[in-house]
Design a protein that fits this description.
The protein is an alpha+beta fold. The protein is built from three helices and four strands; from the N terminus they run E-E-H-E-E-H-H. The strands form two sheets. A two-stranded antiparallel ribbon has the order 1-2.
């Protein structure tokens, strides 16, 4: 069975940890996922986990020369997660595809959370 992999671009702003709050760095993230998994709740949980991991990876800054390890900007990761979930849900609706309730629920919550930021 050939799996179709799709990608969604999510745009977020990352604040480098060593810079002031005014020094925000915009990033664009391409999230890859399997459309077929979004039909079931179990598959949706897998896709959500993969999106979360990809968001964390995109929002991780390398360690400093003074021995600090890599650090994840949680606000950035949350923004990427929210925007990706919303965009995926919108894409699926536009294509007329059914989406598992678990994924739709998370996308709805992420949309509400994102709009409050």
């Amino acid at each position: 069975m050939k799996k179709l992999m799709f990608a969604v671009a999510a745009f977020a702003v990352i604040a480098p940890f060593t810079a002031s709050a005014e020094d925000l760095k915009p990033i664009t993230v391409e999230i890859q996922y399997d459309h077929e998994l979004l039909v079931s709740d179990a598959g949706a949980k897998v896709v959500l986990g993969e999106i979360r991991q990809q968001a964390r990876t995109a929002c991780t800054t390398s360690g400093s020369k003074f021995g600090r390890g890599p650090v994840v900007d949680r606000n950035c990761a949350d923004d990427v997660m929210a925007k990706a979930a919303v965009k995926i849900l919108q894409t699926r609706e536009a294509m007329g595809l059914d989406t598992a309730p678990a994924f739709a629920r998370v996308a709805t919550i992420e949309t509400a959370s994102y709009e409050q930021r």
